[in-house]
Amino acid sequence: MTTCGKCGAQRRRWPRRCARCRSGPDRADVAADAGEVAAELGAFGWIGRGIAGILRMLLRAVD
């Protein structure tokens, strides 16, 4: 457990909101931040290449 920065109450780990004062990150903000980090790291490109590779293997197996 961590301590809320706004009211000082004990709260669950990040990214959960504080039960007492309801302060904390919005889920949309957390998702947007995660998407930005993934885009910067090129994770979407790796996922696309992985899916393309799997499809190529399946097509070779069918032929």
Strand order of the largest sheet: 1-2
Overall shape:
rod-shaped
Give the low-pLDDT segments. none
* Overall structural domain count: 1
Reading the helices and strands in chain order gives EEHH
**Overall mean pLDDT score?**
77
Oligomer: single chain
What is the makeup of the main sheet? Answer: 2 strands, antiparallel
> Helical percent range?
55-70%
The total of helices stands at: 2
Total strands: 2
Rg, Cα atoms, Å = 20 Å
Approximately what portion of the residues adopt beta-strand conformation? 5-15%
- Structure class: mainly alpha
Measured between the Cα atoms of the first and last residue, the distance is: 55 Å
Features:
single chain; 63 residues; mainly alpha; two-stranded antiparallel sheet; 2 helices; 2 strands; 56% helix; rod-shaped
Write a compact overview of the structure shown.
By secondary structure, the protein is mostly helical.
Structure explained in plain terms:
This protein is mainly alpha-helical and 63 residues long. The protein has one domain (2-62). The protein is built from two helices and two strands, in the order ββαα. It has a two-stranded antiparallel ribbon with strand order 1-2. Strand 1 and strand 2 form a beta hairpin. It is rod-shaped, with a radius of gyration of 20 Å. The termini are far apart. The model has no long low-confidence stretch (mean pLDDT 77).
